[in-house]
Write a structure and sequence with these properties.
Blueprint: H1 3-27, H2 29-34, H3 39-42, H4 45-69, H5 79-94, H6 96-104, H7 116-138, H8 140-151
Length: 152
């Protein structure tokens, strides 16, 4: 497996881990509350479970696209577009960490405490997003060649 494939493989593993964690916290309202879910959501276990499983499904699909881009499973439809959108959304979701990092490191005071769950989730999202985007950019020609083979 080439190094570009390693990026997509690693990012997809993180996406699958996110799917497992999201499904788990959907079953336990106390865990959801500890991670910042509001009272309206944690007081409705059926809604919490439905949203948790829905998000777990979204993360699992992202993981499948990463595995497909790495060449470990068959090519999925709109692979390059899917990898780009997933990478962009995850990077944008994790980007606030960049601006909060000086406060997290104690270089300047934070107006309010920064939850560790925010730091961890932002770091994971940023890592996944950059893994998808860099893996896509580095493997663009290979993925284009695969598209031509799939059409033939």
């Amino acid at each position: 497996m080439k190094s570009t494939n390693h990026l997509l493989f690693f990012a997809s593993l993180l996406a699958f881990a996110g799917a497992i964690i999201q499904a788990a916290i959907g079953f336990v309202p106390e865990w959801s509350a500890a991670l910042g879910a509001g009272d309206a959501l944690t007081s409705n276990p059926a809604l919490l479970l439905a949203l948790g499983l829905l998000m777990a499904l979204v993360f699992a699909v992202c993981g499948l696209y990463g595995l497909s881009g790495a060449g470990l499973i068959r090519r999925l439809p709109l692979l390059r577009l899917g990898l780009f959108v997933i990478g962009l959304v995850c990077t944008l979701n994790g980007a606030p960490l960049i601006f909060q990092l000086p406060a997290v490191l104690g270089l300047w005071p934070a107006p309010q405490p920064i939850p560790i769950s925010f730091v961890i989730s932002s770091l994971v999202f940023l890592t996944v997003g950059l893994g998808y985007l860099i893996g896509l950019a580095a493997g663009w020609k290979r993925l284009s060649r695969l598209a031509g083979q799939a059409a033939a």
